[in-house]
Amino acid sequence: xxxxxPIPEGFVAIDGELAIAGRKAxxxxxxxxxxxxxxxxxxxxxxxxxxxxxxxxxxxxIHYAVKANPFAxxxxxxxxxxxxxxxxxxxxLALVEAAGIxxxxxxxxxxxxxxxxLELAIAKGVTLNLESVREAERALEIAGKIGVTPRLAIRVxxxxxxxxxxxxxxxxxxxxxxxxxxxxxxxxxxxDAGADWRGFHIFAGSQALDAAAIIETQAQTLALAAxxxxxxxxxxxxxxxxxxxGIPYFPGDKPLDLAAVGNALAxxxxxxxxxxxxxxxxIELGRFLVGESGVYLxxxxxxxxxxxxxxxxxxxxxxHQLAASGNFGTVVRRNYPxxxxxxxxxxxxxxxxxVGCLCTPLDRxxxxxxxxxxxxxxxxxxxxxxxxxxxxxxxxxxxQGPAAEVLI
Length: 408
Ligand SMILES: *Cc1c(COP(=O)(O)O)cnc(C)c1O
Description:
Elements: E1 12-14, E2 17-20, E3 23-24, H1 25-32, E4 37-40, H2 42-55, E5 60-65, H3 72-79, E6 84-87, H4 90-98, E7 106-108, H5 115-124, E8 127-130, H6 133-146, E9 151-157, E10 167-168, E11 178-179, H7 183-192, E12 196-202, E13 205-206, H8 211-232, E14 238-240, H9 258-269, E15 280-285, H10 287-290, E16 294-306, E17 309-314, E18 338-340, E19 350-355, E20 364-371, E21 379-382, E22 404-407
Parallel strand pairs: 4-22, 5-6, 5-15, 6-7, 7-8, 8-9, 9-11, 9-12, 12-14, 14-15, 17-19
Antiparallel strand pairs: 1-2, 2-3, 4-16, 10-13, 16-17, 16-21, 18-21, 19-20
Helix pairs in contact: 5-6, 7-8, 8-9
The protein binds pyridoxal-5'-phosphate.
């Protein structure tokens, strides 16, 4: 038997079934009218942001990285919880606007911004996190053409990366950000060109569960921002410290020690170098805010045996849950947390693999896990489905199409 990842705290059974925010899985599916279904719970989003705010210094603003989950009702709910939004495309900017979010609270990072995206963002007063020197020049040119003062920040490619990070996005040659040695001259250029200079964005990695690693990275980030500002002779109105806060997905993963990170940051803030004393700080988080709010529910279509192994074949799969299938940036496939939702409080009775309905061996949601005996019609729950699920999976593969989504 292979272990399953840890189910996030707070999920209980009602009448033997998994309940999400007090609602039974089968009732939620009946209401949605179909499976597969992503369920996101407002109360879990609220609790997560409240816990984060309680742990972090008041001075630290919290931004939501839209790419983790751009579902419109979820975005609208997040608008009441966080201080800002980070988008990575014109498409995400449109979603954020449709959710009624003020573009002045939005920053736009990401390589390969098209002219039309730059123009739209500048016209709306979005802060551009510039990813290259050439992009900076294009932004200045476009701003001049439309007669708007652009809000410009520099995304720095730091010379360090977040240790234990699931995905490395800083350190060495990268398509993201501008190498630190080129930053001071560019910062001066932006100020001299009359841009509304917004400061630095320094993102060093993602999905870290080790508080010590995050603490070290934040210290390095502050030191780098101070050094670059001093070299450039510019102020730092704002500094986006990146994010990287992870959530437990796999057997043995432990939740991040938020209090340790918050306390260390409070100490840093109490002892800032002069050039950062008036700076507004933020972090930008995706999965940490929304990942554990979501559950993916899929129905068992077939129960079969092959060479003595049991397969629960579902109507879902990697076309909605690429990450849970192990095909989204992981080297070794490990099981996400999952359960038989309709037998949530039943004991483990057998070893079974939960697979999707796609005709590819990559399509597994749980491999050789321990489950109660499930039959046709049972619902399977995959947890930690609130981030990088619906919008980060190849939804049209094999003609399957999207899952239903609901925010409760
Ligand atoms: C992807 C990304 C994030 C969000 O990462 P999470 O691991 O979901 O918190 C934040 N900032 C940038 C620049 C990103 O590319």
